[in-house]
Write the structure tokens for this entry.
Amino acid sequence: MAQRAANSLTHEAVLLPAMPLNPDHWRAVVQAMRLSPREADVAALKIRGAQVKEIAAILGIETTTVRCFQDRICTKAGIRRHEFFAHILRVSHEVKSHDASPD
């Protein structure tokens, strides 16, 4: 499930900047945040700088659906939309710290 989310957007969004996280790290973030594949798609595009209209066009969904997915992500995380990037960064660091800690 996370594999699809991490890899499904590589060819559709060629005009957007590259994903700032490597695929394994992104999968770990998606798993830690418990995102559905579609939520992960929306989050990945948002991280890459896509606006709501662009995300809708790339995924073939309505802008209201994109906003619904954004709201679901924020509800799951207990954050507001304007805190999205900070939350992703925080989870990314937590995942990285956890992976780097000795067992």
Remarks:
- The domain at 2-10+18-98 is CATH 1.10.10 (Arc Repressor Mutant, subunit A).
